[in-house]
Amino acid sequence: MEIRRYNREQAKEWNKFVSESKNGTFLLDRNFMDYHANRFVDASLMMYDEKERLVAVLPANYEEDIQTVYSHHGLTYGGLIMSRRISTLEVMEAMKLACQYYAGLGAKKIYYRPIPYIYNRYPSQEDLFFLFRNQATLEARNLSQTIYIPDAIKMNELRRRCIKKSLKAGNSICQETDVTVFWHILDKNLRERHNVIPVHSIDELHLLMSRFTDIIRLYVVRNRQGETIAGTVVFDMGQIIHTQYIAANPEGKATGAFDHLISHLLTSVYADRMYFDFGVSTEKGGKWLNEGLTFQKESFGGRGVCYDTWSLNLSDFC
């Protein structure tokens, strides 16, 4: 197997491979990854078999000052993206070659964020076996709540009452392309409740939505006057729907707009999909659980899926 460092001229080849892989998602497409490429020193790798076929890629960045590789620091998850034909022994070789390559750069450690299993199109956890075999350390375990749509747990009574309240208030749901109004609702909520700002600016969201028109979608709830009072940005990844952002203003919260919106997405828009992933409800690497947020997501039928981060010392690969 041959390992090569990714360069921008290979973006088309990289993207084609991710789209056909057994575990890649559009977050690993260079058109998504590279919207903030200026913030990171890219150290992604591409692995080819003896027939010059691309069999795996590894999204990564390198922070030379602390001699640390991340896969990937700017993404929710990264890890080895694999072809459907790759074998366990080939995955072991690819992971070993990657570790040797990074050790050769002077890196002492890699932080590895495997893709959660619900995003896999085919079983793809050979990389976890490699980590185990090489004494990797579980550094963080964040918890997301995910609904299994084909056999969803029934929403609790509180959620059903809120949905009825929204319908009675005359709220309506539609898809929107301009994120400006929703983003300001989101920004206000995050600043007031958590003293943080959205990960993506308005301009970045518009840019990404223009690049992925069929994948990144905004759904909003409007009151009788046509004013946006709640919304969510979702990532449509085929078998799985992920809510990237969720927000409601005071009127939206008071009238159950958010509950109405999630119910509509689950029962009408995405009823034929496999998973509906709300995202993590933890902070500090999983050491702190937001119990209120967890309860809210579980009351829709969500149950736990782990988002892990592993560390591996590279000294054994020098």
Detailed description of the structure:
There is one protein chain. Helices cover 32% and strands 28% of the residues. It has a ten-stranded mixed sheet with strand order 4-5-7-16-8-13-12-11-10-9. Strand 14 (282-283) and strand 15 (288-289) form a beta hairpin. The protein has ten helices and 16 strands. It has 318 residues and is an alpha+beta fold. The protein has two domains: 2-134, 3-Layer(aba) Sandwich (Aminopeptidase); 146-306, Aminopeptidase (3-Layer(aba) Sandwich).
Write the layout of secondary structure elements.
Elements: E1 2-5, H1 11-20, H2 30-33, E2 45-48, E3 54-58, E4 61-63, E5 68-71, E6 81-82, H3 88-105, E7 109-112, H4 126-133, E8 137-148, H5 157-168, E9 172-176, H6 180-194, H7 202-211, E10 216-222, E11 228-236, E12 240-248, H8 250-254, H9 257-269, E13 275-280, E14 282-283, E15 288-289, H10 291-298, E16 303-313
Parallel strand pairs: 5-7, 12-13
Antiparallel strand pairs: 1-2, 2-3, 3-6, 4-5, 7-16, 8-13, 8-16, 9-10, 10-11, 11-12, 14-15
Radius of gyration: 21 Å
Helix content: 25-40%
Q: What is the subunit organization of this protein?
A: single chain
Architecture (CATH level 2) name of the largest domain: 3-Layer(aba) Sandwich
Low-confidence parts lasting 5 or more residues at pLDDT below 50?
Answer: none
- N-to-C series of helices and strands: EHHEEEEEHEHEHEHHEEEHHEEEHE
Determine and state the CATH class of the largest domain: Alpha Beta
